Amino acid sequence: MKDLTISAIVAGPEANESLKIRFEPNRWKHESGLTIEYENVTGLSFSTESTRDLLGAVLLDEILPTDTGCSHEIALRHGSVTVECRDLTAAKWE
User: Fold this and answer.
1) Greater confidence, 18 or 14?
2) Which long-range contacts (CB under 8 A, 24 or more apart) does 69-77 make?
3) DSSP letters along 18-69, please?
4) Which of 40, 60, 84, 86 is 20 to 30 A from 17 via CA?
5) Please, which residues have CB within 8 angstroms of residue 22's CB and are 6 or more apart in sequence?
């Protein structure tokens, strides 16, 4: 995930249903991008450390267990994203 950038965040049609985050590859480091789909989202938070619209590249990410599933914390160069959900899946895209 390191150095990927968020290109899209798409919420499902129902509140707390699903969420997809699409990550663009760094053309110098990655052959493909990544899409993560979160099921039964119970929490979503963003923080930013910049006045710019861009959060920047991924520095690190961590998936932690919770009582109802998991929490995915993504640290970016200019902020962070945390998603709490029942489960998640990841798939590469060209």
Assistant:
1) 18
2) 69/40, 69/42, 71/43, 72/36, 72/38, 74/1, 76/6
3) EEEEEEE--TTT-SSEEEEEEES--EEEEEESSSSS---BEEEEEEEEETTE
4) 60
5) 6, 7, 8, 9, 10, 33, 34, 35, 93
How does pLDDT run across 20-57, given as a tens digit for each residue? Answer: 999 988 777 768 889 999 999 999 998 988 666 678 88
CA distances from 85 to 3, 10, 30, 61 (A): 24, 15, 27, 15
Under 8 Å CB-to-CB from 13, ≥6 apart: which residues?
Answer: none
Q: Which two tokens stand for residue 36?
A: 């993560």
Structural contact between residues 78 and 56, judged by C-beta atoms closer than 8 angstroms:
yes
Only one residue has tokens 């979160």, namely: 38
What's phi and psi for 38, nearest 5 deg? Answer: -105, 130
